[in-house]
Design a protein that fits this description.
Length: about 250
Amino acid sequence: MASPTPLNGNLALITGASKGIGKATALLLSSLGARVVINYSSDSTAADALVAQIGADKAIAIKADAGNVKELERLVHETVAWGKKKVIANAATTALGMGLEQSTEEEFDRAVGLNVKGPFFLVQKAAPHMRKGGSVVLLSTSLCNLSGITPNYLLYVTTKGAIEQMTRVLAKHLGTKSITVNTVAPGPTGTDLFFEGKSEQLVNTIASWNPFNRLGTPEEIAGAIAFLCGEGGRWVNGQVLRVNGGMTV
């Protein structure tokens, strides 16, 4: 019989873990036996509540800007002080809906900083401390594979396209150290970030694009991340797993 705690002995560092997909991932990985570092940028109340829910013996919360290299270095340092890492799940992201004409330099820098620079340097700082058999799971979007994408997502998918290429190259590099690197690319998922600024009619329209006629859930995305972190994903490397219920195929 399979162990109910297949990630026992592992330590997962999850950026943007106080809510949404990051929170669901922290809850699932901890239920599978991992100890989790819950990174948050500002909402200490939500992060502390999540630590209390998981248990202070299995989770800690660390505040750090996931787009700032010095703060990422500190985040890794504090994580290493708590235990060696085997898993990185990068859930921190910004979903700026900006097209070509609307994008400003400030918004471009913000999106690239959190969505590209942050994951790049998080892996750079953490990889030397990761154990053999470790996993890196980054986050993209199924919009990168949607032919009907609208112009307002230009900036967002530009950053996520970079993540997908980063995944392919990092997988070759870190694979030599027996560390896998993959990316999960969700379709529309029912998070606070997704619902922000959208009318009920728009949400229902987006849900109708899916053959299941609904949005994904954070828990379903977390399930894919957990698979890639576990033994079932040991021979999966350099892949972009589009978790969207068949919205894109």
